[in-house]
């Protein structure tokens, strides 16, 4: 007897290898998945501009990063003495134009270098809604808590979404690692503040355009994260207290399905072992000076050394 409808992911013939660079961009769920890959000590870079939800803004970010197109004073907006970029998260805001441009262009340079080495680009779309900043008549990735009266909210049209996705694919194919693979997902996080009906319409718009674009490109893949959460994990025990975001158990279930389909055996083993090491390093002893704890640390160092021999780049640098 079956008690749930499981969503299966077909194993990919192209596998993520230990030495691959993974670049990811998009909604907050992209960060959750990438954080687990990074914890496993595979090289990743996630959301260098901050969390971005809509296809138009994601495409703009990819264009800037791929071409390393520096920002100038004309790209910075002054709102009541706070300087900001509508393409970036509020963490890039500053007290002067020079300060903001310094942070933005430094990250842009670093992310551009990483992007061009990336064998895999993971993109997670969150919404088909977009905000237009009326004074400058431009679409924004982040409203920076500026009053709503300055913005107009609307759906991106099907043609706008499809064009953004296709442009993004073309940029990745041109600038990222030759033979690179693009993995698209739709965030399972419901944007309930838009309205329940509006959220479903938003996700449907993304899915329709996305499947159309993926079908035309052999190096593009669709990972059914949205479908897994909505159907396979429909029980609220897989959600956080807000009943909107997946909880740790739900995220781990999705991550394991993703890994089983896209990681090579070597990568899967490498990430699993390193995740155990990371958990062991996070342990806080009652007495750090005790002989038993020092022996415990030596065993961890031995395991790290064994894992280090498997890759050409340094691991566990932040521990």
TrEMBL record:
<feature type="domain" description="GSCFA">
    <location>
        <begin position="22"/>
        <end position="258"/>
    </location>
</feature>
<dbReference type="InterPro" id="IPR014982">
    <property type="entry name" value="GSCFA"/>
</dbReference>
<protein>
    <submittedName>
        <fullName>GSCFA family protein</fullName>
    </submittedName>
</protein>
<dbReference type="Pfam" id="PF08885">
    <property type="entry name" value="GSCFA"/>
</dbReference>
<dbReference type="InterPro" id="IPR036514">
    <property type="entry name" value="SGNH_hydro_sf"/>
</dbReference>
<dbReference type="GO" id="GO:0016788">
    <property type="term" value="F:hydrolase activity, acting on ester bonds"/>
</dbReference>
